[in-house]
Amino acid sequence: MAIRNAVMSELAEVGYGRLSIEAVARRAGVGKTAIYRRWSNKLEMVLEIITDVAGRKVPVPDTGSFASDLDLLMMIVSRALQHRVASQIIPDLMAEAARNPQIAETLQRVLRIHQQSVGEKLVGQAVARGELPEGTDPDVAVDLILGPLYWRLAVSRQPIDDDYLEKLAAAVLGSLKGGSAT
């Protein structure tokens, strides 16, 4: 746990390019050999830890209504993306992924698996309750939900308030109910 926290803190402070095993060991209060016993290099260490962190499940709400589930999910995701560490690490890793195919493949795999799970559960619940049309595409729904949040917070780095989340949720809900995501 100390090593994982040290890696995340170092990534947030200096980015992947300047991250070193020595700095992680120093921050974690362990010797470099403790790190090298588990990982043979920086890339392996970062990929395993990022896979673990990115693969953590966002709780998929089941409030009894799709609109409420959507509001809650958007609030959870927006807060996660605004977290001090995440807001520094995500843009850096995305930039690094453009240069490093292993990082790109790992991020795509772990995030897509998680997004598919969220989409299938969220959309499945809503379709079963008759709130969304049969055949609503869970992947498109997740892209509509998460894409604007990611763009706003990680790319353009604009703040999000409750009013924005309400407007975004209404737009997503309208799009999905209209059947344009089937």
From TrEMBL:
Domain HTH tetR-type: 1-57
Keywords: DNA-binding, Transcription, Transcription regulation
Transcription regulation listed as a keyword: yes
DNA bind region: 20-39
Record bears the keyword Cell division: no
Example GO molecular function: transcription cis-regulatory region binding
Sequence intervals crossing the membrane: none
Name the UniProt record assigns to this protein: TetR family transcriptional regulator
Organism of origin: Actinoplanes siamensis
